[in-house]
From TrEMBL:
<dbReference type="GO" id="GO:0045252">
    <property type="term" value="C:oxoglutarate dehydrogenase complex"/>
</dbReference>
<feature type="domain" description="Transketolase-like pyrimidine-binding">
    <location>
        <begin position="763"/>
        <end position="977"/>
    </location>
</feature>
<keyword id="KW-0479">Metal-binding</keyword>
<dbReference type="GO" id="GO:0006103">
    <property type="term" value="P:2-oxoglutarate metabolic process"/>
</dbReference>
<comment type="function">
    <text>The 2-oxoglutarate dehydrogenase complex catalyzes the overall conversion of 2-oxoglutarate to succinyl-CoA and CO(2). It contains multiple copies of three enzymatic components: 2-oxoglutarate dehydrogenase (E1), dihydrolipoamide succinyltransferase (E2) and lipoamide dehydrogenase (E3).</text>
</comment>
<dbReference type="GO" id="GO:0030976">
    <property type="term" value="F:thiamine pyrophosphate binding"/>
</dbReference>
<keyword id="KW-0460">Magnesium</keyword>
<dbReference type="InterPro" id="IPR029061">
    <property type="entry name" value="THDP-binding"/>
</dbReference>
<dbReference type="Pfam" id="PF00676">
    <property type="entry name" value="E1_dh"/>
</dbReference>
<dbReference type="Pfam" id="PF16870">
    <property type="entry name" value="OxoGdeHyase_C"/>
</dbReference>
<comment type="similarity">
    <text>Belongs to the alpha-ketoglutarate dehydrogenase family.</text>
</comment>
<dbReference type="InterPro" id="IPR042179">
    <property type="entry name" value="KGD_C_sf"/>
</dbReference>
<dbReference type="GO" id="GO:0006099">
    <property type="term" value="P:tricarboxylic acid cycle"/>
</dbReference>
<dbReference type="InterPro" id="IPR001017">
    <property type="entry name" value="DH_E1"/>
</dbReference>
<protein>
    <recommendedName>
        <fullName>2-oxoglutarate dehydrogenase, mitochondrial</fullName>
        <ecNumber>1.2.4.2</ecNumber>
    </recommendedName>
</protein>
<dbReference type="InterPro" id="IPR011603">
    <property type="entry name" value="2oxoglutarate_DH_E1"/>
</dbReference>
<keyword id="KW-0496">Mitochondrion</keyword>
Amino acid sequence: MPIVGSDRLSHPYTQVSPGLFSFGPKGNAGSEAEECLGCLGSAWIPGFDRGRVCCAGEIAYSPALPSTPTAPHSYSTTSHKNQQTKQINISPLSVSRTTHCPLATVLGNCHSVIMHRLNLNKIASAPRFLSNSLAPSNRLTSKFTKSSQNLRHLATATNDQVLRKAPSPVDGFVNSNNSYYIEEMYRMWRKDPGSVHASWNVYFSGLEKGLPSENAFRPPPGLVSMPQPAGGAPMLAMPGSGGEVEDHMKIQLLVRAYQVRGHHIAKLDPLNLSEADLQTIRPPEMDLKHYGFDENTDYEKEFSLGPGILPLFHTKDREKMKLREIIEACNRIYCGHIGLQYVHLPDRKECDWIRERVELPVPWSYSLEEKRMILDRLIWSDSFERFVASKHPNEKRFGLEGGESLIPGMKALIDRSVDAGVKSIVIGMPHRGRLNVLSNVVRKPMEAIFNEFAGSADASEDGGGDVKYHLGANYVRPTPSGKKVALSLVANPSHLEAEDPVVLGKTKALQHFDGEGSTDHAMGILLHGDAAFAGQGVVYETMGFHDLPHFGTGGTVHLVINNQIGFTTDPRQGRSTPYCTDIAKSIDAPIFHVNGDDAEAVTFVCQLAADWRAAFKKDVVVDIVCYRRHGHNETDQPSFTQPKMYQAIGQQPPTLKIYTDHLIKEGSFTEQENQQSQRMGVEYDGEGLRRKSGLQPNFARVAVELELKENILEARPTGVERSVMNKIGDTISGGWPENFEVHKNLGRILKNRGKTIAEGDQIDWSTAEALAFGSLLLEGNHVRVSGQDVERGTFSQRHAVLHDQKTNDNYIPLSNLKPEGSDPVGPFTICNSSLSEFGALGFELGYSLVDPHLLTMWEAQFGDFANNAQCIIDQFICSGERKWLQRTGLVMSLPHGYDGQGPEHSSARIERFLQLCDDDPFKFPTPEKAQRIHQDCNMQLVYCTTPSNYFHVLRRQIHRDFRKPLIVFFSKSLLRHPLAKSSVTEMEPGTFFIPLIPEPGFSGMVENHQIKRHIFCSGQVYYTLLQEREKRNINDIAITRIEQLSPVPYYEIVKALETYPNSDVMYCQEEPVNGGAYTYLAPRLENAMNQTENHAGKKVLYAGRPPYASVATGSKKIHKQEVQQFLDQALNV
């Protein structure tokens, strides 16, 4: 398609200024990517400085676009046809899947847009790239479809004769650039011909009668006498044609600008100090001059309401609105105390759903009774903070002053959700406002809260408990509709956002147990601070679960308490995005910003969020822009760092006063009624303070704690019947459907597993694990395993999910176990997680909290990567029971072992987990204490050497009357080691987990009193020692395996020590001396040695690697040398 006046196919329009809705980095201070609802792609336009234009003037800005085209843009006309069909790479330019299209398409697109701008000064919108075509998706199914396709063809054709034809009167509005608008008009016309402009009515009627598109519409005579330009340059429209249509289209674009950009200038900051989006420039496309309108002459012009122009304002009595009224309505809807971000949503129905609820003459209108409820809830919120501050002025409480409207908003959110069918809500929040939420939302008794202020909170005698603003609570409370809801506020540490994945995991478990997997009956609510929401990586990890199989919870409602500061850090230092909530756009969640001093607006958007979650089962964010009346805590002085902000805060009336003044002014309530309500709030708080002295412990809550503390809960056998193992063996080795094609090599492996079970010997690690899972399932327990690559196993060891080699269908053998008699089989869930440790481990921890008859396992890809989740390990797993009485039976499965794979694939950091164990190395337990050692510990650590012990330790998690976290270190090399095998007799009824395996002895071994060295070890190093001892023909060294590292099996160790009275005692490990179990076990071994007659006073010798900073060497050669060195240390007596 040559440009007239040039003998080369080049683009002379590089100096064209950006037009409507097309701007580059300098065009607007905002740089967010606002995506078009109807556009599936967009293109680079010469001279538009990295801007992209798309259909109906909806702009997408991409800072990644090149400032110059990536495709060559100068071609000779000598090979016109070849060049026209040459495929051009448009992948940097298109947001669709299309990566290439013909050169003619690109050039035609650019030419059409630029000429359209030059001729009409209209919005230029690049047609969409769809399957190497610029035509938009076919949305119409009538005669109009063919006609519009013809018109699109005219707009994008490359034939000179077509382009040089005389202009058609319809070219001004019927072209591919305006297809989105045309289709909207057509839809409305089909419903009601009178709802569109008369020109459209004539045009569509002509098409319906079969007229050609160029003849379907004729403008008035005064508009058709436009001469053809000199030189035959093509014209896509005639100036002045369809003027009313053009104005109508501009108004549509103006309304669209409010929908897209209105939130940037919404009145969100109660202090009026800055814009919530950190911008200072008004978006130019929201000014009338941008569209050629004049405030003096056009304000009173009337425009038809309809598609794109406030259609819900249209009534029988009001079919048109003045431009002034349209602007006022848009300002009220999009630029008032609510700012809406939703046009980035890819689903048109979702966008329309929001528009239908906010683009109303009156988006909300609360009754007198509803206003009373909002006022009462605001009073309770305000009075709580005032009362606590007066009684405990020097206590840290992290009050909600400045953000009190959270309480009426949050309660409205809960009430609306309960009305939609929700029965259980799990809440996670930081310290800010936590006590207020506990009192007024969860309804924890006031006397219990004041008891904690007095320092009388119940804590165990060994030093448990936590500060009052970290504690959780579980209550069932009624709602105004008469329904009841179970509220669970999850306990949290001061590590901001750490509770997020825990809340989602607990919500998912509630949905599994209470709702049979449905997401309708349980939901999660997460409260965030603005700085943490933008800054903490776990927020993104957690939001990434929203649409994953086995992790999605049907939508989480996020409430951001945006007090516009992070301790002492200003927002401009705390985030690189306009809003603190911009991360939510990555998962296509709508974001509702709201001024926190407008209690009714906060209530409305919270109800809107509840309705969104109920309708679409997706996340939604409510950004409550407020302030923090005091410092980070009540004893802090914030004016040191934010003097201007705190001057404004000092003059800012409380939210309660603003709302009561509003209600009194409008006549809803009197001053006397208001004062009476506030007195009731203070009296209620005072009554709670008086009752705290007589507060009695909730024995229903502590009964289990007392039983656990006073009674000895005996361990039960964990073996299973041989018939049960055979049944599981048959299922995992060949129970898939007849037409299911398993990979040939894998089928052979699985058949061999079934064979080992049937023969009763040579059972390997993965088979033992399958037997543990399967037997628990047959007993009716739920088993859930997650982590990166767990379905197959990182080391190709598990193969819990089979894949048909032809159809790629999945089959999970353990999900297809047949029940024993009438007893139901428990559900089995095994699922690959996202590449996340912090979020995934937190999720599984939350899942494990819901039901005791549940085995939840999280497995790391390599144990080395578990430290990405160190916060969950430190703050929840190892200390949750001590701080919050939060018990979990969660299993962490961590690959560990030095196999020469370097410093990042060798160590699960055993030493760090052992350091977190809370036993005393210098106190030898009494016999009674030793019997209850598992009840009293904070967690258990095992490093097994046999598959049977692994089988038992997993089953032990369920077959006892308490729950403790279990950390399993497993050797990668033992998965297939020929010596690491077990027999079914080690797993039959009457068998247990063995915490210490003594030297089994061998032919030729000397008498016990002649043993010179007694080596204790754990894990895979045992087999290294065993093989080297045999290789060197050593018969006077005994090797004992400590299978359970913590709690230490003291009495078993003493018994093993007494077996060899004349030996020295050594601990051997493959880890460095500053790693592994040595530093933990050495003082405990010596403690045990002091209980014997022959070893008292001795020191434990060490064999292992020297201190390392990087865990392990990256050299295979050095690795082998180090192995030889510590073997020499251990075996040379």
